[in-house]
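Take a careful look at the protein record below. Let me know whether the structure tokens fit the sequence:
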Amino acid sequence: MQFIMFTKHLQGLDVDGMIAALKSAGMEGADLCVRPGYPVTPENAPKKLPEEAKQFSEEGLGIPLVTTPGEFITPDVAYAEALYAACAEAGVTHIKLGYWHWKAEDGGYWGMVDRIRGYLEGFQALSKQYHVKTCIHNHSGEYMGLNSCAAMNLVRGFDPKCVGVFADPGHLSIVGEPIAMALDIVKAYLALLAFKDLMRQRIVRNGKAVWQIRVVPMGQGFVEWDALLATLKKMQYDGPISFHCEYSGVPVETVIDLARIDVRFIRGLLGEVR
């Protein structure tokens, strides 16, 4: 497994700062956030992404995954082909799309499935041309592809060399199948995993009791880590693991500290699995 870190919450750091942060946290590379406000954006990626990948490589780090803006969901976006080409030049092997929000009035669930599969045909063509796999991420809430069964409704039948699933056990622990079943469902398309822990809790907001989902340090949420790692061992999974480290509202230095603790937690469990 290759441990990488999602750089979303390293916002404000330049490339040298990100490299130092990743090394400090015990990572082997980046799940690079390519969005407005970061060193690499969708618009400057043709020039900046290969340069940044070279800088990472010189420091012994890789960039196996680029995470795009949440609205990158159709292949006709102006920067789409240039971004795939930049990933190919930089040696990035996976690109994560944004999110389709379910809307009952927008053709209903099955109408949206058909439309999204049409978009994925265009993304598959880009993946085939540039040898960069297009990945969808299961995300809890009113999102298309929120768990393994829903993700398979979108990707089934596509070439798994071109289209894959970015499985997230954190979100699966909220709205998904039992973890061994969830990974078995997407096994043929499993390209990447996101590691984070989530919990659902009841809080009072404006005098009313509501449910909220929180990111918590690994081992404190709903993810069954022992079962997850045992399943990955049985599957002989050896791909990238993106530590999401979505600890918002704290300084970047604290995010790095918490990422280091998460890595230590997983490495400890992997030792027990071995």
